[in-house]
Amino acid sequence: MAKLYFNYSTMNAGKSTVLLQAAHNYAERGMSTYLLTAKFDNRAGHARIASRIGIGQDADTFEAGEDLFTKLEARLAKGPCACVFIDEAQFLEPDQVWQLARAVDDLGVPVMCYGLRVDFLGNLFPGSATLLALSDEMREVRTICHCGKKATMVIRKDADGNVVTSGDQIQVGGNETYVSLCRRHWRKAVGD
Predict the structure, then answer these.
(1) Which are the catalytic amino acids?
(2) Tens of pLDDT, residues 32-44
(3) Does residue 91 fall inside a structural domain?
(4) Residue 189 within a domain
(5) How does strand 153-157 pair with strand 4-9?
(6) CATH code of the domain containing 122
């Protein structure tokens, strides 16, 4: 039975690594998969999912306003697909999450989404909020704060290393921009 999965965490928890490992497991068994990532996030290169530990794989992309049910339907028409994997799922629009749920229900294909739960201000991303509401199963990919506690929050830093407490919700970046922290250290960092 196909399900919609949401694997979530903070920055630098290894979500892309987990996604690539799961896709590899399917490939080892001769099963075809379909990988998608946000078109505007090209840190790993255009149409590529990569992990900080050095593994990566080419992928298709999604962008704002795109009908993902139609996209998955077209992919399935080309041949078998055992599972759909979506990286950077926080960038999905709520309507796109509903389209993925419809693909699970009506096309019978499992969809595994990997992304951030909250932004640098502690607010849910719209795509993540909808995934939390609609997913059949959710799994937390854990990472730790510098104090050793579980990190559930993330701060954004400017070019000088100062903590940023305002700005656009979406700013693509990696270790140079974001640091994962426990709630207590996040509150201290943002001046709460």
Answers:
(1) 88
(2) 999 999 887 766 5
(3) yes
(4) no
(5) unpaired
(6) 3.40.50.300
